[in-house]
Amino acid sequence: MVSEDRRLRLAGYEVYRFGGAELMKDDADRMVAEFFDQLAERMR
Fold this sequence. Notes:
It is a single chain. This protein is an all-alpha fold and 44 residues long. The protein contains three helices and no strands. The protein has one domain. Helices cover 66% and strands 0% of the residues. The longest helix has 16 residues, at 28-43.
């Protein structure tokens, strides 16, 4: 995973990673939705 992260960054991509433990939390849906809302704002 780490080497793929480097490869994507060198290719010009921004990489946003989520950990498995984060996604197992009760509020994971909210956390992911907020992240994509913030990303959409940034892309405006």
